[in-house]
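Sanity check

After download, print the first record. It should look like this:
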Amino acid sequence: FPRAVLGVPRGPGWAALAGHPRGFRLNVARPPGLPPPGLEDAGRENVRWTWRQLGAATEALEQLPERVSLPAPDGSEVRVVHASMRHNRDNILADTPDEVLRQQIAPAPALFVVGHTHRPLIRRIDQTLVVNVGSVGLPFDGDVRAAYGRMEWRDGGWEAEIVRLPYDRAQTERDFAESGFLDASGPIAPLIYDEFLTARPRLFTFVERYREPVLAGAMTPEQAASEFLATLRSDGAAA
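Expected structure tokens:
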């Protein structure tokens, strides 16, 4: 259903921006050379599946801006980016040191809104309210409900809350299978499905743990994914 999702933020009042998956998909469509070996190439299978579903609609992705800047009622700035001002794979977390966070939001606006980590966050630093809106489909804080951010201007300043909503997860489970995603997205598809089931990140740990064994030929990506999932189950999926 990627095409349907892409069509959602096109109504009046919506402003969409690019995330790092855009560049990833564009690289899949127009690879500069041979595909990278090992887990990196295996990890592209789900992206290729998404690309095929989008078809000609991928052209819209190339037009999305890297940031959205809006004026607040007092003339200060509201800025929305995918991850940080440094680059679009830069994590802003609850334990990010203040001095690092200042670099990540510079020049500091009144309200700085991000996603990327899939971890909801509300944090103040100096005169800036920093908000990570989490994720609708794959939040990574252990709460399987959909997450989004709501920011309101009150009494001359910004306030924020993370809203959590239940939804038909049984239907979403069926969608994973009936859409063809699980069958056509390669060895990491079960890991993404597990992220949906648990609201916990899996891919980063998986790649860090198995990149070298796969590159060395000690195991295939499929074997690595199977072993990793078995480890999660034996550990009670608490990793």
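If your output differs, re-run the checksum step. Summary of this record's structure: The first strand starts at residue 67 and ends at 71.
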